[in-house]
């Protein structure tokens, strides 16, 4: 993979070093997210201008979001009604300090309905 654009997805947390180790990477766009850290491999790519990382929440990296903008994002209560659905990424905001564990109600998805009568178990056994 040479070009990877992950711009404006509300990703947060540390940038995975495995992404920065992709062997043929020429352009990685991580701008307009809420990443909070970059490791040594990613920092090398930032210096070589392979990574565009503007408008995140990374201390010590130029052109980041304001403190108040990052604080507002990490203060939001984010939950996922059905974590297995993966409809919303990221599903949990682990940086929210005020979130009580009992505020999150886990739900189990109902099994999908059977589409055909042929999928019903046999009523008569031979």
TrEMBL record:
One GO cellular component, as annotated: extracellular region
Subcellular location: Secreted
Keyword RNA-binding: no
Keyword line: Leucine-rich repeat, Repeat, Secreted, Signal
Lineage top rank: taxon: Eukaryota
Broad class of where this protein is predominantly found: secreted
Record protein name field: Uncharacterized protein
Source organism of the structure: Erythroxylum novogranatense
């Amino acid at each position: 993979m040479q070009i990877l654009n992950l711009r404006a997805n509300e990703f947060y947390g540390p940038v995975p070093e495995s992404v920065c180790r992709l062997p043929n990477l020429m352009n990685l766009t991580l701008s307009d997210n809420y990443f909070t850290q970059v490791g040594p491999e990613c920092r090398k790519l930032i210096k070589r201008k392979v990574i565009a990382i503007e408008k995140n929440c990374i201390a010590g990296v130029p052109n980041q979001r304001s403190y108040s903008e990052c604080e507002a994002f990490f203060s939001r209560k984010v939950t996922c009604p059905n974590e297995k659905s993966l409809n919303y990424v990221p599903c949990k905001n682990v940086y929210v300090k005020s979130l009580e564990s009992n505020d999150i109600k886990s739900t189990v998805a109902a099994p999908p309905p059977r589409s055909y009568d042929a999928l019903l178990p046999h009523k008569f056994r031979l």
